[in-house]
Amino acid sequence: MPVTTSLLKGQNATLSTGPVTCTVTVRGLSADVSALLLGPGGKVRGDDDLVFYNHPKHDGVSISGQMVTADLPRVPADITTVVVVASADPLQPGAVFTTAPRLTITQPGAPDATFTAPDFVAKETVVVLAELYRRGEGWKVRAVGQGYASGLAGLASDYGVDIDDPGTEPPAVLVPAQTSSASSSAVVDLAKVERQAPGLMEPARQAGQVLVRTGLAGRRAAVYLVLDHDWHMEELYESFAVQAFAERVLALSANLDDDGTVPVIFSSGREPFLEEIRLDNYRGRIGQLHTQVDWGWGNVADAMRRAVSHYQESGASDPAFVVIQVGDEPWDKAEVRSLLQNTAALGIFWLFVGFGRGKLAFYKNLNASATATFNNVSFYDASKNPGSVPGEQFYNGLVNAFSTWMKP
Predict the structure, then answer these.
(1) Which of 56, 187, 326, 404 is deepest in the core (most CB within 10 A)?
(2) CA–CA gap between residue 179 and residue 182 (Å, rounded)
(3) What is the H or E stretch that residue 157 is in?
(4) What is the pLDDT of residues 20-54, one digit of tens each?
């Protein structure tokens, strides 16, 4: 008898090229199962790409009860991802997920794979359970387990489905996430997040609460993100950890900068690659971009210079908050130190965030010396898996030193 494989959140497994059946088991409430077919930009091509009980079959993907079946050879070439979703029955007012659904992935002749996400605590009404996605000439499955507190209507909008079309309106109601007393005092309007990226509402609220506590509510900054693309980071890109980290930074940016966009710079062995992640395209964005970048020893100094150039060319009057994810020691330490000294008067704050498998002593010790002059620099150790750090604890680590620097 084949051995069943248990996946953890963020893990992936290789699929064979035949039909794949994803069976959802829900305890404690009635739930509907649906699927979304996404193109390379992380959006549906049209409303027909939402497959649910009133539209149960489309382009090789079908719904039957609590099962999603994807006949992979029949999925069109312009579909890169099939998303498996469970949503609380809208006919049960107030129904939310507390115990996470269990997902079983079955293929003929292959061992089953199962995934149960961590339980939910934020009144989630929708859960993205898994993504079936193309990898080279084949397919893989990624365990996601991300909850939405804004209903399937918000999820569908996030992926580009027009929920106003009466022919394909999904079976959901909009259920806003709960706000706390701390977040209600924030002056940032998160309506754009709820409209364009409802899946980021909870981290955006968490970030806003931390900004209130640290005295940064209402302050503005241009947020940048630099990502390490050393060869040893491959597993963390593949496991969705870097994508999840970028989403959290984007949610913070939504509180500090109203354009809904974060420039992203990949630090690799060649010239840094600059793109952006936005509220309207963030789903799977890092996975799409990083495949365009060669693996290599991260050139942190070049990536920093690219951020400085972009910031100066933008003509922004607000300070820049540059979040640099680092997974190992830089090989260009002298250049990094020089850049930190030379940018102190430019209105740029540098936050090095460590996660990965390498040593990070250089970054940890930047301000350890009594003679250190880097008042615009800080380091935050986000552990090997920043996704496991609770939201407000994570944002405290991101903004504590920045808030001190920002205060007159």
Answers:
(1) 326
(2) 8
(3) helix 151-158
(4) 999 999 887 888 899 999 998 788 888 889 898 87
